[in-house]
Amino acid sequence: MSQLETAMAILLRTFDKYAGAEGNKGTLSKTELKTMLEKELPGLLKASKNPDECDKLMKALDHNGDSEVDFSEFVVLVAALMCACHNRSPAK
Question: How many CB atoms lie within 10 A of CB 87?
């Protein structure tokens, strides 16, 4: 697989690893999202220094209002983080 295909496969596996621990295998509950963030992006929550940050993130990501984050909503998070990282990288 190419690097991009590998990255996509990792994103799919990461979502699936955490989704469904509490029920629906197609979505992340607030608890599942928090666990995923703590394990996969530990610097994100530590940098915020705000215990309510996960709640705010959940609300921002949950576009359809079902109190869960589906894969499409998860991809929005990943894309936003990638854009933020890209904008901070030095020009080449």
Answer: 7
